[in-house]
Specification:
Helix content: under 10%
Number of helices: 7
Order of helices and strands: HHEEHEEEEEHEHEHEEEEHEEE
Low-confidence stretches: none
Strand order of the largest sheet: 1-2-3-4-5-6-7-8-9-10-11-12-13-14-15-16
Strand content: over 45%
Distance between the termini: 11 Å
Radius of gyration: 22 Å
Largest sheet: 16 strands, antiparallel, barrel
Mean pLDDT: 93
């Protein structure tokens, strides 16, 4: 659920495609409750999906102890978080004869909490399905229209959009549970001005495929303050744009080869995004002094940036469709003057259908490395030098440097519409702090596709 935009980005043009206009096919996952009503609706251009994802994680290691910096609030515990989702896609070409036009809408309800904060980490959620849902029964994720022209060569979309469902996206990321990887590598949303699921802003995006395996896309997204916070976007239905403070312009291009007669797909993408909105420097004032010492206001940056490089390639194919061994890797670079993380790198392996008797099971291993921006570390070091008990930003209880998150999992395809994924997560230097004890967690994700 929610992967439809990134699936379209990841799907090259078909071979020998006719030069006609049509709506790309909607996602029709296998379901727990197949029925003639939804089949009839899909045949007539209405695609309704309902699902639930539940994520559990519990620490098997004790947290850092001691009264200093609030260590006494840490505890060894477990948490559960999840969401129920409804997706509605409408093919207006079938309903009204409007060639190439479709609308897309998703709503969610989120519940629970995440375990990583129990041992002091605020950088990477142990359960990705946490936060941004507004603690309401129905939260609007996105609602937009898309016109597809020239048999998919040109696609134009506008409305309330989750930008990161199209840019810096991959349907492979959420084969994992931890928030440093699932959804999108966490460094992409470091500024909180990039709208990623379940947040959205007004937006316009255009994607052009000049040849079968290459696309170029760009867009314009007004920046809305507090897109992940309840104060401004609790329900997601706030449309007036009164909190717009600037704009973001992403640009991305990719090569999407499909080797070995279509059995070994790959995606090689590079992108950059420019932001035009006031942002504070993370360490220095306008005169170049550390504002922790000068007590002056931080320097203001009107223009900032973000860049990414993302690669994935299936290198082995087994007997069944969509099976094989795939590798993923990439890096995200944030403006070091205004970000918390200045760069992040990741790598992962996905092995689907390795056991011939379990063609839909998937084995996954992921690694993410996060590095804190130098200005943040310098600012925190200055505060701690003056007062060892000083209150630090970013929920830190010590100097922040870097962090590693690892995950290993096995996604068991129990029956049509149901996947159970036991997993283990390991946090090295939680919250990028070397003074916090490493943490290991056992967990399990349950996904049920109802319709």
């Amino acid at each position: 659920m929610g992967d439809a935009p990134s699936l379209l980005v990841a799907t090259p043009l078909p071979n020998n495609a006719p030069y006609t206009t049509t709506v790309p096919p909607f996602a029709h996952p296998e379901t727990l409750l197949p029925n003639p009503i939804t089949q009839w609706l899909r045949h007539n251009g209405v695609n309704l999906l309902l699902d639930n994802t539940n994520e559990f994680a519990g620490a098997i290691t004790p947290p850092t102890h001691g009264a200093a910096h609030g260590f006494n609030t840490y505890r060894q515990g477990a948490s559960n978080a999840g969401q129920y989702s409804a997706q509605l896609d409408i093919n207006w070409e079938r309903l009204l004869g409007w060639k190439g036009f479709a609308t897309h809408m998703i709503t969610v309800g989120r519940y629970g909490t995440t375990a990583n904060r129990m041992f002091g980490d605020w950088l990477n959620h142990a359960s990705e399905d946490y936060g941004g849902g507004g603690n309401v029964v129905v939260h609007l994720v996105y609602l937009y229209g898309e016109e597809t022209l020239f048999n998919g060569r040109l696609a134009i979309a506008a409305g309330r959009m989750a930008e990161l469902s199209d840019f810096a996206s991959s349907p492979l990321f959420c084969n994992f549970q931890n928030g440093s990887f699932c959804g999108r590598p966490k460094g992409i949303t470091d500024t909180n001005f990039d709208a990623g699921y379940p947040a959205a802003t007004w937006g316009f995006r255009t994607r052009w495929r000049p040849i079968q395996s290459v696309y170029i896309q760009t867009g314009l997204y007004p920046i809305e303050k507090g897109i992940y916070q309840n104060a401004e976007h609790r329900t997601g239905f706030k449309f007036n744009g009164s909190d717009i403070s600037g704009y973001a312009v992403p640009f991305e291009t990719a090569w999407e080869p499909n080797f070995a007669q279509g059995t070994l797909p790959g995606h090689y993408k590079i992108g950059v995004e420019l932001f035009n909105t006031p942002q504070n420097d993370n360490g220095f004032d306008r005169f170049g002094a550390i504002f922790a010492n000068s007590h002056r206001s931080p320097r203001i940056h009107q223009n900032t940036w973000l860049a990414w490089l993302m690669l994935d390639q299936r290198i082995l194919h087994y007997h069944t469709p969509d099976s094989g061994l795939s590798i993923l890797t990439g890096a995200i670079f944030d403006d070091p003057h205004t970000s918390l993380r200045d760069h992040m790198a990741y790598a992962a392996i996905l092995n689907r259908g390795f056991f011939s008797s379990r063609p839909y099971d998937t084995i996954g291993f992921s690694f993410t490395y996060t590095h804190i921006a130098p200005g943040v570390s310098l600012y925190e070091h200055t505060l701690l030098t003056r007062n060892a008990a000083a209150n630090l930003p970013y929920h830190a209880t010590g100097l922040q440097h870097d962090s590693i998150v690892l995950e290993a999992n096995y996604a068991l395809h129990l029956m049509p519409g149901i996947i159970i994924m036991p997993l283990i997560e390991y946090y090295h230097h939680p919250n990028a702090q070397h003074n916090l004890r490493d943490a290991a967690l056992l967990g399990c994700r349950f996904h049920i596709q109802l319709l």
